[in-house]
Amino acid sequence: PMPATPTILGIPWDEKSSFQRGSALGPAAIRRAFQSDSGNPWTEAGIDLSVPGRIADGGDLILPQGNDALNAISAGVRHVFALGGRPVSLGGDHAITFPIMRAVREQHPRLTILHFDAHPDLYDRLNDDPYSHACPFARVLEAGLADRLISVGIRTATAHQREQAARFNVQTIPMVEWSDTLTLRVDGPVYVTLDLDVLEPGLAPGIAHREPGGATVRQVLRLLQGINGVLVGADIVECNPALDPSGITAAVAAKFLKEILGVMLR
Predict the structure, then answer these.
(1) Among candidate residues 220, 171, 179, the one with its CA nearest the CA of residue 199
(2) Calpha distance 233→76 (Å, rounded)
(3) CA separation for the pair 195, 120 (Å, rounded)
């Protein structure tokens, strides 16, 4: 069979943000940066993303208000799979990952999630909301939507989240242990979820939860480019262009998008 076409999907939803709204504007900003004449469509490995048919763009989901959006997101990702695509979703806040994974898991009985983030996002609930953007991996793991979660770049784990990580057997690589030589061996199907606040905030200021002491863009790219399993889907979340008039955050997100697409196509 033909390999599934990497398909960009905008998920402009930020209702679950606990601090500042605005990441619903992320998909449009990332696409503008991705298509900008300031760069070219070639990945670092030499893949030309502009070749017709190589990638697809499914546009933005139109979502209802409230928790009905969760089912609409799952349905939108199922539609990408039904059309022979592999979803690369642009958020939106991190709450989108749980409904995405409901659809991804239906396609992949074996699955590892590689999670880049300053935060574990393992709260059982935050502000009494089990679907907060601080909770997606609690929901993913309790529903059995992945066999393994590897969280890289963490530097804000509370006692509760450390308990949750132990309970769900999360493999955490805290930022303090991340080095330029870190390598991950992940076989089989891999899903990447990339929260831009994994980065040093000066490199991507358009994020709501700025946590100094983060990764460089290159450190993240090295791990993305080094994925040895099959990259079956990805999301890039928490780009809030309202907090970054310079546009550098969207440009960084677009770079990650480019290289994620390249890994899928190799």
Answers:
(1) 220
(2) 14
(3) 11
